């Protein structure tokens, strides 16, 4: 893992393989290691980029409050440093929100989009309040209550019942996050722009993936995006919740691989 200072923030990243670039953007409140299975699967045929959002994993928090706009700028800075003019951008959950922000500001840098277990709409007032309460909890008590609150939401019922090792892996990633990084990301998500009107303006090839057991951004949200993005593809992964790439990695990888082949 390498580190680079971008926008006054030290970001930890990986750059493996060669060929068509694909960038994987991690979910809240995890880190880039959630993509380990994808790095292993795709680095033999693609140039694979992953990194930790500021305040997560091995990245520093930075001097300015985090926002989805700052995340997009961090990604742009990383791509410029790596001399990558455009890449396929795969974002899951919060990574999907960042992907929308990145496309809005840097459309020429996006060769294709893979939107996983995410939504285009902004938070409701109730949703914003919930994020603010969780941010306060993280600042006051650290990661333990965040783990308790998030595990049942992030993972599908099948995974919770049959794959304890996946649940433990997710817990470890949450433990590695800085409480203030968690809080700032929550505020950033609560304040993010509504991307619903952006959907009809997306012209690059787009794949939408959702777990059939996703409680946070259910298949109905994915269907709405699919109907609004011209020529998009929708794939539902059975027996997966909000973290489809971790819960059903083989199916997820094949789904993304099939999509990327169409871009060649």
Write a short abstract of this structure.
The protein has helices spanning 36-42, 68-81, 94-105, 125-141, 144-154, 157-162, 164-175, 179-190, 219-228, 244-247, 249-261; strands at 2-6, 9-16, 20-25, 46-51, 87-92, 110-116, 206-211, 233-237. It is α/β, with parallel strands linked by helices and 264 residues long. It has an eight-stranded mixed sheet with strand order 1-2-4-3-5-6-7-8, sandwiched between helices.
Give a description of the structure.
The chain is an alpha/beta fold. Helix content is 45%, strand content 19%. It has eleven helices and eight strands. The protein has helices spanning 36-42, 68-81, 94-105, 125-141, 144-154, 157-162, 164-175, 179-190, 219-228, 244-247, 249-261, and strands spanning 2-6, 9-16, 20-25, 46-51, 87-92, 110-116, 206-211, 233-237. An eight-stranded mixed beta sheet has the order 1-2-4-3-5-6-7-8, with helices on both faces. Helix 2 packs across helix 3 (94-105) and helix 4 (125-141) runs antiparallel to helix 8. The longest helix is centred in the middle third of the chain and has 17 residues, at 125-141. The two termini are 28 Å apart. The model has no long low-confidence stretch (mean pLDDT 95).
């Amino acid at each position: 893992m390498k580190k680079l200072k971008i926008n006054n923030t030290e970001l930890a990243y990986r750059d493996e393989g060669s060929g068509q670039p694909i960038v994987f953007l991690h979910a809240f409140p995890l880190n880039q290691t959630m993509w380990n299975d994808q790095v292993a699967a795709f680095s033999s045929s693609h140039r694979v980029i992953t990194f930790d959002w500021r305040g997560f994993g091995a990245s520093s928090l930075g001097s300015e409050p985090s926002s989805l706009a700052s995340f997009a700028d961090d990604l742009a800075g990383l791509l410029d440093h790596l001399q990558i003019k455009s890449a396929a951008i795969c974002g899951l959950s919060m990574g999907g929100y960042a992907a929308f922000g990145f496309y809005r500001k840097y459309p020429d840098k996006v060769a294709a989009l893979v939107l996983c277990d995410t939504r285009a709409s902004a938070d409701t007032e109730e949703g914003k309040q919930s994020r603010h309460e969780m941010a306060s909890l993280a600042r006051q008590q650290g990661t333990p209550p965040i783990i308790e609150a998030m595990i049942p939401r992030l993972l599908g019922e099948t995974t919770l019942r049959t794959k304890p090792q996946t649940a433990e892996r997710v817990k470890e990633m949450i433990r590695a996050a800085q409480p203030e990084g968690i809080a700032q990301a929550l505020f950033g998500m609560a304040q993010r722009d509504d991307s619903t009107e952006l959907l009809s303006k997306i012209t690059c090839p787009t794949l939408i993936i959702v777990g059939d057991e996703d409680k946070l951004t259910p298949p109905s949200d994915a269907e709405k995006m699919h109907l609004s993005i011209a020529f998009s593809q929708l794939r539902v992964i059975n027996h997966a919740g909000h973290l489809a790439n971790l819960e059903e990695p083989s199916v997820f990888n094949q789904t993304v691989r099939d999509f990327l082949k169409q871009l060649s």
